[in-house]
Design a protein that fits this description.
The chain is mainly α. Helix content is 84%, strand content 0%. It contains three helices and no strands.
Length: 89
């Protein structure tokens, strides 16, 4: 029995590490895409450097809020039921 528990803990640690690595990759990729799009945004919106900083900061803030909301939804799925209009059990 103790060996089965150890195997489960090792497997769950590996899964947790893979999940964190995937999340970090997704965040870095997303920020890179926004930064690559900045020259086009500056041209089309006639934005100054200060305006571009606001665009990047606003996007990162919105993305972080969505990541935190998704994390809480996974941890406490019943907390979002009233938002979706589903009755609580």
């Amino acid at each position: 029995m103790p060996h089965e528990r150890c195997r489960f803990l090792v497997a769950s640690r590996g899964a947790a590490l893979a999940t964190v690595c995937l999340a970090v990759f997704a965040i870095n990729l997303d920020v890179t895409i926004v930064n690559v799009a900045l020259p086009d945004l500056a041209r089309q919106l006639h934005a100054s450097t200060k305006d571009l900083q606001w665009i990047v900061d606003g996007y990162n803030l919105a993305f972080a809020a969505l990541v935190l909301t998704a994390g809480s939804a996974v941890r406490h799925p019943s907390a979002l039921q009233p938002v979706r209009g589903l009755p609580r059990p």
